[in-house]
Every structure is written in structure tokens, then in C-alpha cells.
# Entry
Amino acid sequence: MIEKTEALVLRMYPFSETSQVVSWLTPGHGRILTLVKGAQRPRSAFLGQYDLFYTCELVFYMKDLSGVQIARECSPLEHRPSLRENWRSAICASAVCFLSAKAAATGRSEHELYALTTACLDSLTRSGPSIPLLFWQELQVTRLLGIAPNFQTCVVCGVRPSAQEPGMFAAQRGGFVCGMCAPRAGQDMDAITPDCRAALLRLQSIRRPDALRTIAFQAEQLLAFRRILGTFLLFHAGISVDCRNMIANLLLMHSAPVSVGRQ
# Structure
């Protein structure tokens, strides 16, 4: 069966001296792998038709979606050249694609995840690298997976804390734990300050990544986001954030050109 779909390049790697395997995110089929035969030959029809972070129109022979498909044709729809010209933007885009690849299923409709990933890459193209965008994407992915952390109410007693009430974040329980419930909630918890909880709630409520440019985040809040969301994703989705942590560290080391919110 021949299928045609819009597809976003997540990853590509050599299969032989002349061919490549490409990992794609598609709206209708989720994450798929295709073998692009002869892609690296001098006169290949695929030369310049796809690259990292491209959105393409892909035509492929579909057999069993759990395996590797054969690409027939490919043409670019969106190039996003700035993501390959600025190394800071490139590593941000890599983190975005890594998380989407881990969250996507094969053979299942992923329209929302596809739209989310595209929005993140387009925002990086327009505005440059952004540390908060990585954490925003993680919160949006947990929402799409149906496992979003609860910062609104205590997950033990169900009471909404006051704006100034400190507490704990229990990843295994799925969210915020108030001071009264903390002693009986378990040992594996992180302290969460009122301003950090408020920032996470605001980050969680945003639906478009460009809105992040209007919000100021403190360095202490970003460090808390990194710890809290990393623990949560590993426990509930089995997704390691080692790649994201390495990228965030690199961006913080070179923080002058990198957005951490409104200055």
C-alpha cells in the first residue's frame, strides 16, 4: 500500500554507504521509520529533499508499521534553516524532537503531538533558543499522555493551598502535597516554593509557545522545573531526561543569547 502524509524529520542515520534510515513524526501514523534507498548517491532524487527538522510531504510503501517502511518520494514543505545554523537553536530543537519521539506511538493518530512539536520548532525558528520552552513542551506532553502533574490541589487531601503555602512535590503521587499531608505522603519528595508552584501552574496553562517570551522565569525556578519534571517524566512515562539536562546545562553556560523569559 502506498501512503502519502505530511511528516517531520526527528532523526536520521546511515544504513549503508548510500542509504539512510529516517525517523519521522506523522499526524496519522505516529512515529514511523523509513529506509531511503540511495539517499547519499550523487544523483539521488532525495538529495536536498529532507534534513533534520524539515517538514516534508512523504510518500512511502506501508507494510507493517512496526517495522521499517520504504520511502518512495519526499519533498520539503518547511526547511527551518536557522535550526541548523545556530548551534543553540539546534540543540533545543534536538531536545524537542527527542521528547516527541519518546512520547509518540507507532501506528496511532498523533495529530496533537504533531501540532505541538511543529509549534515548538516554529517558535525556535522565529525567536531562537529558549530554556523554558523545553519545560513547557514536557508539561504539554504529559497533558497529551493523560498524566499531567497536579499543581492545583494537594493530591492527598484534595484541598487547594493558599498562594503563599509552601509544600512538597511527590512524583509518585502525581503532584503537590500540602504541609499538613507531607509527613504521611512518603519520603521521595521535592520541596516546592509558592512562587515555583505558581510558575508551573502558569507554564502549564499556556497553549502556544510564543507566549513564553512574555514571562520572566528566575534561574532558581528553572532549576526546580528541571528537577521536578524530570522525576515526574521518568516515573510516570519512563522517559529519561538526561539528554534534556545536558542541553539545559549547555544553554545555561552560554545564557546571554538564550531566552529565559522577559527581561
